[in-house]
Specification:
The chain is an alpha+beta fold.
């Protein structure tokens, strides 16, 4: 196991096509882990190993790898950039301590860049940034840094100065060492640190002064020297930049062109220099499952083991569970507790993960990201613990699906194989859900977008050998209550010679149409058996998800169990569930329900002369345009539009924009269906 202070758990996060995978391939190549620089265009990348990833040139599933870099050990997760796969980013953020956020120097801060930045902030993840594609037409380092400052509160700390942009991009100046970095060799693997050329000298000094001044705004030590006109020692400057990065007050920004193999090595050095080790995280907050009190886990191999499952590779033979270890050590065949279920599980085998490859190991400790097999009834978001200390790091809340599609096997004999395949896919991806259409009995799969469903269902044929037919994509409508109501129901039935009785009082109310889909609470008083309370709460959760008056799943509902009357002789968990289900149906009828449709935030980047035509296309589709932003020679249109109006937009945009437009679409809420 590596020394704790030398471990870095980091994620690579960004908007689609900003260059995450190319940058990761550079880290692998320059570390010596690969002997060929993987290229997306050639379809030979290590981290994008699924056939569909290589065919489309995008990352679909978060991939993990261990990368040795000088004296460090980087545990790296390359995440998707497409909004349809945002759940992969969300769960990966739970496993990392630091992040590299990649921006395209051409497009700047795009929609998904902004989203993943804020996702990282939610989990207090320190960041460094890499402005990629400096060699592309329209690239601007300063404009991209200005956008980072504008959108994220002035945190960008420019660590380098580019020597040219677009086709004139040749290298960069290291503003700490005040040296010019000259890249040479077949893969630019050799970096010569030479004196700054005379024509860059004045700009470099000005940029370094700006860097020191920005650090001085947050550091009394640096400020004292800076104001007195004294030289700030390099060690002090590095130490303060690291401190401010870990405190999330500043974000060091680097630059380069991953595709041209320039700037990746300085970025790799910065990961070790400025991102946190597990030792830098004072504690990982958790809840004691036995007492309900907040406790903390620490990156100490002598503490009781605690780890978090953030990803599953499902298989018909043995699922591989990706686990981030927060405290303690684990050995192959150790017995653990699943904090969610309280059940004992056994980690039969332990693996070091390298993209699609694994290496069996016998032991792992704090800070490690490993693969486990043999776990029963475990899922993403579960905490695994040593039996002597059962704690939970809290689960992961996944967004509700917004689109659905009917799926049937081409051959009736493949029905069971299709069900098995869909079960595996849904186990891997909690934003993918399957159900059965009540009116037809057909299988329905729901997900986060057209691409999400297309990619997921393609795996059914490529990986599981089941040929399928699919229907047209449909919007996944939801229902919610119109007004609050309180329901009192009595369940009193005789089945055979047995009497079953339960009596419940439940408050139902619509809630704000953002955030959690439900809030289900127990507000009962007195001594009621826990099994009966649990049965009532579970029945509430299941019943609301089943569907409202129009048959769509309910959403944005508060349900509070106020009272539960029972008899020792005749009340069973089943009787309680029956009373709750009766109460739910009465609530729908008394309060009434309304159908909700998902609304999307749409961002379109297109040439200036095509904006009018794109706007004319969007307006009759109920789009509400909120902003138009100039980005170089391009214009960004920002609007909200119902998902139902967006089918086919991806095919229409090339025609509308002369093949030069791009767009991103992400869920931003619900509105009443017109």
């Amino acid at each position: 196991m590596a020394e704790l202070s030398k471990i870095r758990n980091l994620g690579i996060i960004a908007h689609i096509d900003a260059g995450k995978t190319s940058t990761t391939e550079g880290l692998l190549f320059f570390s010596g882990q690969t002997h060929k620089y993987g290229n997306i265009d050639d379809g030979n990348t290590v981290m994008d190993f699924l056939p569909d990833e290589r065919a489309r040139g995008i990352t679909i599933m978060a991939a993990a790898a261990v990368i040795p870099w000088k004296s460090y050990e980087y545990h790296l997760i390359d995440t998707p950039g497409h909004i349809d796969f945002t759940a992969e980013v969300e769960r990966s953020l739970r496993a990392i301590d630091g992040a590299v956020v990649i921006f395209s120097a051409v497009e700047g801060v795009e929609a998904q860049s902004e989203k993943v930045w804020h996702q990282a902030d939610t989990y207090s993840v320190p960041k460094i940034a890499f402005v990629n594609k400096m060699d592309r037409i329209g690239a601007s380092y300063n404009r991209t840094c200005d956008e980072i400052n504008e959108k994220f509160g002035g945190v960008a700390l420019q660590m380098q100065l580019p020597d040219g942009e677009e086709s004139a991009f040749h290298g960069m100046v290291d503003l700490l060492k005040m040296k010019y970095l000259q890249f040479q060799g077949e893969h630019n693997e050799t970096i010569n640190s030479i004196d700054i050329p005379a024509e860059l000298s004045e700009a470099a000094q000005s940029a370094r002064d700006a860097l020191i001044e920005k650090v001085a705004d947050h550091s009394d030590e640096v400020a004292a020297l800076f104001l007195d006109g004294e030289e700030v020692p390099l060690d002090l400057l590095r130490r303060e930049i690291r401190r401010l990065t870990l405190a999330r007050e500043l974000v060091p920004v680097y630059l380069g062109s991953a595709k041209r193999e320039m700037g990746v090595q300085p970025l790799a050095d910065a990961i070790g220099e400025y991102l946190p080790s597990p030792e830098d995280i004072t504690e990982y907050k958790a809840t004691d499952r036995r007492t309900g009190k907040e406790i903390a886990a620490h990156a100490d191999p002598k503490e009781a083991f605690a780890g978090f499952i953030f990803k599953i590779n499902a298989s018909n033979t043995a699922d591989l569970f990706f686990v981030r270890i927060y405290s303690g050590s684990i050995h192959a065949n150790d017995q653990l507790i699943n904090a969610r279920t309280g059940e004992k599980v056994r980690a039969k085998q332990l693996y070091r993960i390298y993209a699609k490859s694994t290496e069996q190991i016998q032991e792992a400790g704090p800070g490690d990201i490993v693969g486990l097999t043999g776990l029963k009834d475990c899922g993403i978001g579960d905490t695994l613990c040593a039996p002597q200390r059962v704690l939970s790091f809290g689960g992961i809340v996944f967004p509700e699906p917004v689109i659905s599609m009917v799926v049937e096997p081409k051959l009736s004999k493949d029905k069971d194989k299709l069900d098995d395949a869909l079960g595996l896919l849904c186990r891997e991806d909690q934003t993918l859900m399957r159900s059965t259409a009540e009116e037809t009995g057909q299988r329905v799969v729901s997900g986060m977008g057209e691409l999400h469903l297309e990619v997921s269902l393609k795996r059914v044929s490529t990986e599981f050998g089941v040929e399928i037919r699919t229907g047209e994509p449909r919007v996944a409508y939801r229902e919610t209550l119109v007004q609050p109501t309180t329901i009192h129901t009595v369940f009193n039935k005789t089945i055979g010679e047995s009497i079953f009785y339960a009596e419940v009082t439940i408050d139902f109310a619509p809630r704000e149409r953002t955030g959690e889909p439900f809030e289900i609470k127990d507000a009962t008083r007195g001594t009621i058996p826990r099994a009966l309370i649990d049965s009532a709460l579970q029945a509430l959760n299941d019943g609301l998800r089943t569907g409202g008056l129009q048959g769509y799943p309910m959403i944005f509902v508060n349900a509070t169990l106020k009272d539960l009357k029972f008899s020792q002789e005749t009340t069973t968990p089943g009787a309680v569930a029956g009373a709750v289900n009766d109460a739910i149906m009465q609530a729908f009828q008394q309060a009434g329900t309304v159908i909700l449709e998902p609304v999307m935030k749409l961002e379109v980047l297109a040439p200036e002369d095509t904006v009018g035509e794109i706007s004319m296309y969007l307006q009759p589709r109920r789009a509400i345009i909120s902003d138009m932003i100039q980005i170089g020679i391009m214009r960004k249109i920002i609007c909200q539009v119902p998902l139902a109006e967006m089918f086919g937009f991806g095919k229409a945009l090339p025609r509308l924009s002369g093949g030069r437009g791009s767009f991103s679409l992400e869920p931003c809420g619900y509105q009443e269906k017109v």
